[in-house]
Amino acid sequence: MRFEEILVAPETPIIEAIRIIDKGSVQIALVAKEGNILVGTVTDGDVRRGILAGIALDEPVSRIMNAKPTVARANQSHREILKQMRSTEVLQIPVVNEVGKLVGVRFLKDLVAEVQFQTRVVLMAGGLGKRLSPLTDDCPKPMLKVGDKPILEHIVRGFIDCGFSRFSMILHYRGEMIVDYFGDGSSLGAGVEIDYFHEEAPLGTAGALALVKERLDESFFVMNADLLTKINFRQLLHFHQEQGAAATMCVHKQSTQIPFGVVNLDGHIIRGIEEKPITEYFVNAGVYVMEPEVLEHIGRHENLDMPDLFNRLIASKAKTAAFPVREEWLDVGRMEDFKRAQSLYVKN
Fold first, then answer.
1. 189 and 258, same domain (yes or no)
2. Fewest beta carbons within 10 Å, which of 37, 125, 223, 325?
3. Exposed e or buried b per residue across 77-114, where buried means at least 16 C-beta atoms within 10 angstroms of its C-beta
4. pLDDT digits over 187-197, tens only?
5. Last residue of a domain, which of 91, 113, 135?
């Protein structure tokens, strides 16, 4: 929508501003003086507060407008504007230049879609897959087929289905097979882009991010390329941004049953016996959302895994968050898990 469609002058009667607010779904009128200099905004809430205060609807809109509205600057990135809107809990935000002249208006629902579409997905696809030998003797683990597609294609299409299209793949073992299969990504759909980074030696699930550092200037996903999951990646990104976290880790609930009666002791005194107790705990699910500042904690050419990176972030007082995965999730790292994945995806 063009901002001119919701523009009123300070002397415009309140009733006219109401018509603009009610006309569509934008729920706001922008108040500007000559030269489109923003002087305020009017929402349905402002109108209702004016009515309660006894202000007549034929009085000028300047009587009820918010004279100090939240605004965005024309030089701010989509990511910065989205963060500002979330922190101030506004659904719309006028955009002004350096002298306060209106140049546009942004809406939260549209901006979320734009930011999500631009979010980069980093896929760690360089592992040797030794536990799946001999299947991986001549094929990288992410390219093993589950159902009719390689594991890595299931992952990529899962992100595409959620609206994400920019991918960076970290390669090492037989990486050329992955490049030959996916190419630049265009075969997967309009707008899909894939670029590749090669590890000369394994750098770990976090250390390899240093290779992609120049691409990571906004929130980004990281995912191990041997996972199958139905996570809603849009919800994950929204959760991460809502928490204001530097890094968010997906966690999956696991349970272990001890096959014996557990004896609770107080010295030599038995206080109780619990038969075959079940312990529940959360494990790292291998999917993350991060902010660019986390890269400052990774040394160049450093071999570093994600648990160690998170421990560094925690030690530095950076905010870290956990996103519990309630959807289907399977780590295809062992032969029994690979066989289970086959049975699941053949059924689906």
1. yes
2. 37
3. ebbebbbbbbeeebebbbbbeeeeebeebbbbeebbee
4. 998 889 999 99
5. 113
- For residue 207, give the nearest of 306, 140, 122 by alpha carbon: 306
Domain count for the chain = 2
159 and 301 assigned to the same domain: yes
Handedness of CA 307, 294, 217, 89 (dihedral sign): positive
User: pLDDT tier at 114 (50, 70, 90 boundaries)?
Assistant: low
Domain ends where: 113, 145, 163? 113
Amino acid 262: pLDDT:
95
Catalytic residues: 276
- Mean confidence (pLDDT) of the chain: 90
In a shared domain, residues 84 and 127:
no
Q: What is the pLDDT of residues 206-225, one digit of tens each?
A: 999 999 999 999 999 999 99
Range of the domain at 222: 119-347
The reply to whether 143 and 223 lie within a common domain is yes
CATH number of the domain within which 227 lies: 3.90.550.10
% of the chain with per-residue pLDDT over 70 = 96
Joined together, the tokens standing for residue 262 give 């557990």
Length of the chain: 348
pLDDT in the model for residue 12: 96
Give the separation between CA 100 and CA 330, rounded to whole angstroms: 52
